[in-house]
Write a structure and sequence with these properties.
The complex is a heterotrimer. Chain A contains 15 helices and eleven strands. Chain A is an alpha/beta fold. Chain A has two domains: 29-312, Rossmann fold (3-Layer(aba) Sandwich); 313-356, no CATH class. The longest helix of chain A is centred in the N-terminal third of the chain and has 19 residues, at 3-21. The radius of gyration of chain A is 21 Å and the shape is globular. Chain B is α+β, with helices and mostly antiparallel strands. Chain B is 29% helix and 41% strand. Chain B has one helix spanning 56-78, and strands at 5-14, 17-22, 25-30, 42-46, 49-53. Chain B has a five-stranded antiparallel beta sheet, with no helix packed on it. The model of chain B has no long low-confidence stretch (mean pLDDT 94). In chain C, the strands form three sheets. Chain C has a seven-stranded mixed beta sheet. Chain C has a four-stranded mixed beta sheet with strand order 1-6-4-5. Chain C is globular, with a radius of gyration of 21 Å. The mean pLDDT of chain C is 93. Classes of the chains: A alpha/beta, B alpha+beta, C alpha+beta. Chains in contact: A-B, A-C, B-C. Chain B binds chain C through residues 3, 5, 22-28, 45, and chain C through 185, 191-196, 254-259, 261-262, 264. Strand 3 of chain B pairs antiparallel with strand 8 (192-193) of chain C, so a sheet runs across the interface.
């Protein structure tokens, strides 16, 4: 498709969206659940194409942003106490802990290796043996099966110096809490999390909360189309779940991937920045895979953490406040010198606002 | 963390592993989540794993839709 | 004791004594001497530069030191030549400061020096003075290089940001993001096969081709660290004017586009080492492209936007789908040690 075709198709969708939205009796507030959608919307400048009465609100679908400060502290304490090498996705490296980030720990001589794939941990563990290698497990259902598959391989290869600190989160528990909020009228549902979970699993949004949701891809046109459909559903009062990413998301998702998750992990309670403890929203290692659990085999005492009381990440993650309404935004809190994770994560709402300019 | 891109499966390199390519950039990935993948398929790649096989037909339908929208707008603008 | 090719740099090589002498005589001079370096004066006396001299310095700490399309040596030549070119000055002479880490394989040093010689020959510059130091293992990462450069200004209207005016057009001399992406893909944590190379090259031929624009050539800058985005923001901030660009007009190699999606890195913030951003007078964009048509160093050159009075000191971008967003200044350490 030529760039002019893209431009014209976008125009058609934007005009349609505006036309339908003009019939609405209220401002429509939709939540984009996934951090990658937040970035994609900002990056394509889509907000300038939306009707005035459509407001996009960012949600908690940024796994780094919802990770509590204590997780970074636990990682560093574990590395120090057990002379461990930390392996992590790049996103976590500059997230502030109570006494510095992984980046500052590395600058002080700590062993921190960034990995692109969790599979890389197996090779690193072999290099580091007999010293432990600890992987920082953050992510939603897109990432979780990749770690689970890695641990399956580690188990069958007899790797015994690889560990995981689990901060995995699942998307449905917080979504159910957010769906009950009166000031949210519909959901732009994640694309790749849905590749794993499918589109049918969101029916409760329509059935129990009477809110529409559209699963969307990440190309600007896919997002525009999904939002056009969401506006149509909202204006007509139809609570339906629409799969707008059919080329990747099947209604039943990827059962093979889910089976891999189920073999290695089971639901546990998890603490979310901004939402507190949500029962059953985390995942813990189970059965033979408990041998990889860092919290069990490499325990550390993590002192209680204190978040800067001025930091608004918690409110921003639940869509209650926008980044420019945080007093620290752009002043004490910048991507170079972040206070909260929403500014440092590559999918953080504050990072998106800062980088692309609030629109 | 939904960062995942379509890459073409160009070679099966072993039991559950394959080589994928996008724009000339190639890498080895695990195929354990997409056992049905065949050479020539486009896979969604995330963190070194294929997590789904792109449905070619649905992709075509979506592109056609965008092209039609573009054409309709072009026609309207010429009027 | 002769220097074997499988040897390593030792502290003695920086001591100023016999070992240093041998390093310079047997390894450095054969590759770099074009007549002036060989006599090793304390300072070199130069002539023929005219009365308007451009002068610049840059230090290079790129990691990894060898990357597709170049190495720290070729980069050190191109980078400094390009800074001179941005003042419309023909690069003529370079100084070379080497800081070597004890243990650096001699073979690596030889490859780097050869690359510098080749790059200098191609760019038409001569390395005329230099210095070598060796630091203990761990005090430097393999090799750090400083080059200072002298160039002869060859225009009567030196490009300067205060000549930028509303309505001026903005060009980039070719596809962006190649260097940053190539270096990033080469980093240890990734295991990709790829053809993508750094674009490291001298941009003087591009600038020379645009000289006939005279005062119509308003401003030049090479978009290195921070990429196109950093350079456009600098122009907007320093001039106080606004810039609007079209995303669809920005030249981008498919491999760079793919890499940016895989790595989640913005190609507009990714470094370039063989490109120049040129601001030219209103309606001179087409003429400029004509001038660059037969310049191999400017393949893929394009007009990407213009200077406006709206959004002062900021850069706005019209995206591929017709949306608008601000192109913000890149934040700190996107790609550490990229050049």
């Amino acid at each position: 498709m030529s760039s002019s075709d893209e431009h014209l198709a976008a125009k058609a969708l934007s005009q349609d969206m505006n036309r339908v939205a003009s019939k609405a009796t209220r401002t429509m507030r939709f939540m984009e659940v996934c951090g990658t959608h937040t970035m994609a919307i900002h990056s394509a400048g889509l907000k300038s194409l939306f009707p005035e009465n459509v407001v996009m609100v960012s949600g908690p679908g940024c796994p780094v942003c919802v990770t509590e400060k204590g997780f970074i502290d636990q990682a560093i304490l574990t590395a120090k106490r057990y002379d461990a090498c930390l392996t992590t996705f790049g996103d976590l490296v500059r997230v502030p802990g109570s006494a510095g980030s992984l980046a500052t720990f590395r600058a002080e001589g700590g062993r921190v290796r960034v990995v692109y794939s969790p599979l890389d941990c197996i090779g690193i563990a072999a290099q580091e043996a007999p010293r432990p290698t600890v992987f920082l497990g953050v992510g939603f259902e897109t990432t979780i099966p990749t770690v689970a598959a890695t641990l399956k391989a580690a188990l069958s290869n007899g790797v015994d110096n690889l560990f995981v600190i689990s901060a995995f989160k699942t998307i449905h528990p917080p979504l159910k809490i957010l769906a009950a909020k009166e000031d949210l009228h519909g959901f732009l549902l994640p694309g790749h999390v849905s590749a794993i979970l499918g589109s049918d699993c969101y029916q409760y949004l329509a059935r129990d909360f009477h809110k529409p949701g559209v699963v969307a891809g990440f190309e600007p046109l896919d997002i525009l189309l999904a939002l056009r459909d969401l506006v149509r559903l909202s204006v007509s009062g139809s609570a339906e779940i629409v799969n707008g990413y059919r080329r990747v998301v099947r209604s039943e998702g990827n059962p093979t991937a889910r089976a891999i998750i189920d073999e290695v992990l089971e639901p546990s309670d998890a603490s979310w920045r901004g939402l507190g403890v949500i029962p059953g929203s985390g995942l813990a290692l189970k059965g033979p895979y408990r041998k990889f659990d860092a919290s069990v085999h490499l325990p550390v005492e993590v002192p209680p953490t204190k978040d800067d009381p001025r930091c608004q990440c918690a409110a921003i993650l639940t869509g209650a406040r926008s980044p420019d309404k945080c007093g620290l935004f752009g002043k004490e809190c910048t991507p170079e010198d972040p206070v909260g994770p929403c500014m440092v994560s590559s999918e953080g709402t504050c990072a998106a606002y800062y980088k692309y300019g609030a629109a | 963390m939904c960062l995942a891109i379509p890459m073409k499966l160009i070679e099966i390199t072993g039991e559950g592993t394959g080589k994928v390519d996008a724009g000339g950039i190639k890498t080895d990935v695990s195929l354990v989540m997409v056992p049905q993948a065949q050479v020539g398929d486009y896979l969604i790649i995330h963190a070194g794993f294929g997590i789904e096989v792109l449905d070619h037909e649905e992709a075509g339908i979506r592109i056609e839709l965008f092209k039609e929208l573009a054409e309709a707008t072009r026609t309207l603008e010429e009027l | 004791m002769t220097l074997k090719p499988d040897g390593r740099i030792l502290l003695g090589h920086g001591g100023g004594g016999k070992m240093s002498g041998r390093l310079i005589r047997d390894v450095i001079l054969p590759r770099l001497d074009r007549g002036r370096l060989g006599s090793l004066p304390d300072s070199v006396v130069l002539s023929g530069i005219g009365d308007r001299i451009a002068y610049t310095t840059d230090s290079f700490t790129v990691s990894p030191i060898f990357f597709p399309g170049g190495n720290i040596g070729s980069l050190a030549v191109h980078g400094t030549c390009n800074d001179l070119a941005c003042s419309a000055a023909r690069p003529m002479f370079l100084s070379l400061g080497l800081i070597l880490e004890e243990g650096l394989p001699m073979e690596d040093l030889e490859k780097i020096l050869q690359s510098m010689a080749d790059a200098a020959n191609e760019a038409g510059v001569e390395i005329v003075t230099g210095d070598t130091k060796v630091v203990p293992r761990g005090s430097a990462d393999a090799i750090f290089i400083n080059t200072s450069g002298i160039g002869r200004v060859e225009t009567s209207t030196v490009p300067s940001v205060d000549r930028v005016a509303q309505g001026d057009q903005i060009l980039v001399s070719g596809p962006v993001g190649n260097h940053g992406m190539a270096v990033m893909l080469s980093r240890a944590e990734f295991s990709f096969d790829f053809d993508l190379k750094s674009d490291s090259a001298s941009i003087w031929p591009v600038v020379e081709a645009l000289m006939d624009l005279g005062p119509g050539l308003r401003f030049l800058r090479d978009p290195t660290r921070g990429g196109l985005s950093a350079t456009l923001n600098e122009i907007a901030k320093m001039s106080g004017l606004g810039i609007v660009i079209e995303e669809a007009a920005i030249p981008l190699d498919p491999a760079v586009a793919a890499a940016s999606e895989i790595l989640g890195i913005d190609p507009l913030q990714s470094a370039n080492e063989g490109k120049v951003v040129a601001v030219v007078g209103r309606e001179l964009g087409g003429t400029a492209l004509e001038m660059l048509k037969y310049c191999p160093a400017a393949r893929g050159a394009a007009i990407i936007g213009e200077v406006t009075s709206s959004n002062p000191a900021r850069v706005a971008m019209v995206t591929r789908v017709g949306g608008t967003r601000i192109l913000a200044e890149p934040s700190g350490e996107l790609l550490p040690r990229i050049c």
